[in-house]
Design brief:
By secondary structure, the protein is an alpha+beta fold. 58% of the residues lie in helices and 10% in strands. The longest helix has 57 residues. Bound molecules: adenosine-5'-triphosphate and magnesium ion.
């Protein structure tokens, strides 16, 4: 992309040369005219009707039933009073009947008026009480919803454990608890299997490596054997990388075991100094704007997260390309952003890159150098820290990946 040119919608404008710039943001696609407006209005109406809570709906039903039953009662009352009064007058003479007729009509009008007023007032009271009762009846459901929302695959060991009468809601909560128990066991078993298998596979690979190195270090090794040995060493190293990646993925998929205050700026600085050699060998221009951003988390996992992003930015770059790393507060959250030039990546491919063993469409040949687990580990670590990771295509080629994590308690929220 040439300087001054606007990025396409759905792309991120690259940082200008000689500048670390501010946080890169996605250039949002433009709305598509009146059709969009109409469908937005329809969606709002739908949202309103869908959002009438169950509590309000139950109150409405109580109220309507009360008013219907009350109206029938008023009518029956009217008919009984009218019937009784008429029965009393049945034996009166025509002159007396005429004199009392007016009185009866007045009594009936008053009875009806006061009955309707009483119906209205008691009805209002019934609606208010209905609202309160519905709230009380639904509170166990709200508890179930709250807990279900809090649960993720990492905290599946939590249970609803609803106390109270053995009714339908308790049955629902118990069924939910049973499901969580089974899921918890399944996820735990899967993670333990990957971790154990990785451990088991590591030992023979380490033995292979040592044997090959010893064999190759002998002075009388023939060139053919040397070449075969080198190839085997490389294959062994690739498998070791893969197993390490799987082991790390299994570890980062669990709930956090270590929770320390970690400054993302410091982590990014450490990663940059660790990769200093590779960075200077790569010939890429590096820009950095590292500001403090404190989170609570596992420092080892967070360091691996940033390292994976920076390694990718180096690996999937172009000749004389650039890498920019920022840390600090982004939209009130501690964040780290890695931007790199590279080949153009279509937006629809990006989500898939976070899946294990997925590589960009052109990178399959390079699978010898990579395990295809780097971004899966990033996503997993971010999830374990309850954060979000977003990747956007950078205008002109490359990616902009932003990781936002929840701020550590007592961190000034609006620091930028
Ligand atoms: N910063 C980036 N710029 C361009 N493409 C990227 C970037 N990061 C990742 N990719 C693409 O995403 C794919 C997956 O990356 P990921 O880090 O998960 O695996 P990998 O780098 O192939 O292997 P590993 O990190 O395990 O050694 C890569 O093959 C590459 O095509
Ligand atoms: Mg990688």
């Amino acid at each position: 992309m040439r300087p001054g040119e606007r990025p396409e919608p759905g792309q991120v404008e690259p940082t200008r040369p000689g500048d670390t710039g501010t946080w890169r943001r996605l250039n949002a696609p433009e709305p598509e005219g009146a059709g969009v407006e109409r469908s937005a209005a329809a969606a709002r109406v739908h949202r309103f009707t869908d959002n009438i809570s169950l509590r309000a709906r139950l109150t409405l039903i109580y109220g309507m039933l009360f008013f219907a039953a009350g109206s029938v009662l008023v009518l029956v009352n009217y008919l009984i009073v009218a019937f009784l009064l008429n029965a009393l007058l049945a034996e009166e003479s025509a002159a007396e009947l005429l004199a009392h007729r007016h009185l009866i009509e007045q009594v009936l009008t008053h009875v009806t008026r006061f009955s309707l007023l009483a119906l209205f007032l008691v009805g209002l009271l019934a609606v208010v009480l209905g609202y309160a009762v519905a709230g009380r009846a639904l509170s166990p459901l709200q508890k179930i919803t709250r807990i279900a929302r809090r649960l993720s695959e990492r905290s599946l060991h939590e249970r609803i454990a609803l106390s109270g009468p053995d009714d339908e809601i308790r049955e629902l909560a118990d069924t939910f608890d049973g499901m969580l128990e089974r899921l918890d066991r399944a996820f735990d078993g899967q993670r333990r299997f990957v971790a154990n298998a990785s451990h088991e596979l590591r030992t023979p690979l380490a033995i292979n490596r040592t044997l090959l190195e010893v064999a190759l270090s002998a002075p009388d090794v023939s060139p053919d054997l040397k070449s075969v040995g080198q190839t085997l060493l490389e294959t062994n190293a690739r498998h070791e990388r893969l197993i390490d990646g799987l082991l790390f993925l299994a570890k980062s998929d669990r709930e956090l075991e270590v929770r320390a205050r970690v400054d993302l700026g410091e982590v990014a600085g450490t990663v940059l100094s660790q990769l200093g050699g590779e960075l200077s060998d790569s010939g890429l221009s590096l820009r950095q704007d590292l500001r403090p951003a404190t989170v609570v988390g596992d420092p080892v996992l967070l360091e691996r997260l940033v390292a994976n992003l920076v390694e990718n930015a180096l690996k999937y770059n172009v000749e004389e390309g650039e890498v920019t790393i920022r840390s600090g507060m982004y939209e009130d959250m501690p964040a780290v952003q890695v931007e790199n030039s590279g080949k153009v990546i279509p937006a629809y491919e990006i989500e898939g890159l976070f899946e294990p063993f997925r590589r960009g469409s052109g990178d399959r040949v390079g699978s010898g150098r990579s395990a295809g687990l780097g971004l899966s580990i990033v996503r997993s670590v971010v999830r374990a820290h309850e954060g979000v990771v977003t990747a956007w295509p950078r205008a002109g080629g490359g990616l902009v990946i932003t990781v936002c994590l929840p701020p550590a308690p007592e961190t000034a929220p609006a620091r930028r």
